[in-house]
Amino acid sequence: MKLSAPSRTATSVRAVTYVILGILVFVSAIAAVILDDFSFGQDFDKKAYDFLTRLEQPEPWAAESIILAIDEQTLSEYGGRTGIRAAIADGLDKIAGAHPRVVAVDVILAETGASESEDEKLEQAFSKTPHLVLDSYLLSADAWNNPLPRFRQYAAAVAQVHSDFDRYDGVSRDLPLATAAGHERRWALAFQAYLVANGVKDSEIEETPDELVPGGVHIPTADREGHTMRIRYTPLAMGGIPRISVAQLDSKPGLAAKFAGKAVFVGETAQAGGDNWTTPFSNGRTTPGVEMHANAYETLARRMFLVNASQTSVLLSCFALAMVAGFIYAFWSGWITNVGAAAVIIASQAIPAIAFSQSVVWPWLPDTLAAAFSLAASAAWRHLIVRRQLRKSEGEKDRYQRAMQFVTHEMRTPLTAIQGSSELISRYATTMPEAKRTQIAEMINAESKRLARMIETFLSVERLSAGQMELKQEKFPLADLVQRCAERARPIADRKRIEIEVEAIPAEELTGDRELMEYAVYNLLTNAVKYSPPETRVRVFGEDEKGDSVRLSIRDQGIGMDKKEVSRIFEKFYRTKRAEQSGEAGTGIGLSIVEQIVTQHGGSIQVESEPGKGSQFSLILRRSVS
Ligand code: ADP
Are residues 69 and 194 in the same domain? Predict the structure, then answer.
């Protein structure tokens, strides 16, 4: 088993955690958009649409349409539903003088009526109605149930009333402007009334997949096949489309003036008629079909069209929200993170509302989910990362304490020696032979140097990691440096009868701090000796690396390490169990200094190791550019 671990620096670890965060927020945004396509997502969007319809009601206006209503009173005066044709005829006769702009009759006239005289009467009334639009409905997939020819002959056009205002959840939000039966396609009653009112012929209507363009007016349509248009209902403040019933006209003929120049929608408003629908406004109450048509007419006449937000912009907004959420958790901390998270949620709610105020229907769910998912994912990411870091720093503290114990213990040895020796000199100053005194003085000198070196080592780690250590910039040959380190390490190696073999080293020059570099190489060499059994070999060899680098490797036949251990040896104060059991003294600090030195010189370290077989530490160093 060969194991290797590239040099891990704090920056690369941080980069990986940021990449993880990036993936998390990206997935959040994608999930939000995908979930919106499910039917429950559509349900949420529709409810939000209804809410916004109620929230952002347009300013009231003077309606361009009016309803000639067949209400309960009219029905009772005309002998019930059988008298409906006579009632319409009377109503039309009464308003004829007001010259309505168009008259759209939302009553099916496909069969012979209750009596010939009533049909006759209606025919008469139609003959005096110039801009008449009659209704038909879909009988089967390829046939229309048309008005009787006697009525149809007076109609400027025959429209259709579709019977699926409430395709989703019983709330009518939109209306297909076109419906096809076989080869024949007919316009919805409101749209046909609009065409007749504005003198637009069928041939003058342009069609694109997302628009109908009658006479230069662009009507955005959401559904490509049926050209579905969203109905903008009259705001509650308008109290609905004006309604005058035939019975009212009978008692107050003066009301006829209200029909002047209007689009008149004739139809049953009696609740019992069954032609009743729910709108986003109705809150439980129903609206008669004829009023739905009149509302659609108002939408057309006032060009109050609602456009669907493009899928790309919805997707982009999801990504933007998710990215902001990620940034907040990556770079902010404390209470400001909560403020940021709240701002993301508010933004996710504000986007559909602002869009609606600009007549754009923005689905509510994707942004809401993108915000919620990405905030939750980022918060979880931070929780886990912070916890890991906390655990790491606790582990470091623990190891630091153990190392301190070791260090203080180590320091006590030279200190005791210095103390004892200096005491000897002062006590026996006069009697002590010269040679003995020199020997003691040399020992004091050596021990204090050892102490100074120990202190220097500890200080240099701290200063290196704090970036306070200034690197010298000198040129030196790599081979020289290696030879010197090998010579210094040999006395220690000799004690264990370990042979240090220096093989070919490229004749390269390096630039940097020679002293620090020597420290690094010496440390690796002494480690190789320390963590190897007696009578083994330590090989030092160099190779040219790709680009402008050289590789210096130190290979031993020692105790080795497993993968997990290798991944931790550059942590401060970390020592492997095997190293502790080996009886070799150590602080676990040397390699962290080595790593600092090498990375600050623009190089890196690689480790390959196998328990019981040995280790190879390789330094990849930049050669000098001459
Ligand atoms: P120290 O040698 O003072 O313990 P280092 O920072 O130099 O500290 O090394 C950290 C740890 O890495 C060592 O304690 C040892 O467990 C492991 N180690 C370093 N070099 C070797 C090696 N050549 N073979 C096996 N283990 C090693």
Answer: yes
Å from CA of 575 to ligand 1 middle: 6
Let me know whether 204 and 326 are in one domain.
no
* Contact of 407 with 587, CB cutoff 8 Å: yes
Candidates 191, 159, 158; CA nearest to 174 is: 191
Indicate if 476 and 463 belong to the same structural domain.
Answer: no
Residue with tokens 């470091």: 396
Strand (E) or helix (H) holding 230: strand 228-230
> How far is 88 from 71, CA to CA, in rounded Å?
11
Geometric angle at alpha carbon 300, from 298 and 305, rounded to 5° = 105
Q: How far is it, in rounded angstroms, from Cα 301 to Cα 19?
A: 53
Examine the domain organization and report whether 516 and 408 are in the same domain: no
Is position 5 within any domain? no
202 and 173, same structural domain? yes
pLDDT under 70 in the chain at which residues? 1-13, 163-168, 273-274, 283-284, 399-400, 402-403, 405-407, 409-410, 457-470, 626
Strand partners, 265: 67, 104
| Same domain (yes/no): 575, 550 | yes
Answer yes or no: is 521 within a domain. Answer: yes
Tell whether ligand 1 has an atom less than 6 A from the beta carbon of residue 280.
no
Q: Are 322 and 372 in contact (CB under 8 A)?
A: no
* pLDDT, position 8: 45
Domain span at residue 152? 61-303
Query: Across the strands, what pairs with 267?
Result: 69
Burial class of 107 by CB neighbour count within 10 A (0 to 12, 13 to 18, 19+): buried
Domain boundary, last residue among 332, 352, 386: 386
Q: 68: helix, coil or strand?
A: strand
The reply to whether 231 and 361 lie within a common domain is no
Domain assignment present for 1: no
Indicate which CATH number applies to the domain containing 430. Answer: 1.10.287.130
519 found inside a domain: yes
**Among candidate residues 278, 303, 328, the one where a domain is terminated:** 303
Residues 437 and 354 in one domain: no
Rounded Cα distance, 2 and 555, in Å = 13
Best CA proximity match to 146, nearest among 155, 137, 156: 137
Q: Is 528 in the pocket of ligand 1 (CB under 6 A)?
A: yes
The reply to whether ligand 1 has any atom less than 6 angstroms from the CB of 94 is: no
Ligand 1 touching residue 520 (CB < 6 A): no
Among 383, 375, 466, which residue's Cα sits nearest to residue 17?
383
* Number of independent structural domains in the chain: 4
Label each residue of 336-382 as H, E or C: HHHHHHHHHHHHHHHHHHHHHHCCEECCHHHHHHHHHHHHHHHHHHH
To test the pocket of ligand 1, the residue of 572, 575, 584, 598 to mutate (highest count of ligand atoms within 8 Å of its CB) is: 575
Atom 11 of ligand 1, residue of closest alpha carbon: 575
Residue among 527, 531, 536, 517 nearest 599 (CA): 517
557 lines ligand 1 (CB under 6 A): no
The whole-angstrom separation of Cα 488 and Cα 520 is 13
Residue whose Cα lies nearest atom 13 of ligand 1: it is 575
pLDDT score recorded for residue 210: 87
Dist. CA 72–CA 78, nearest whole Å = 10
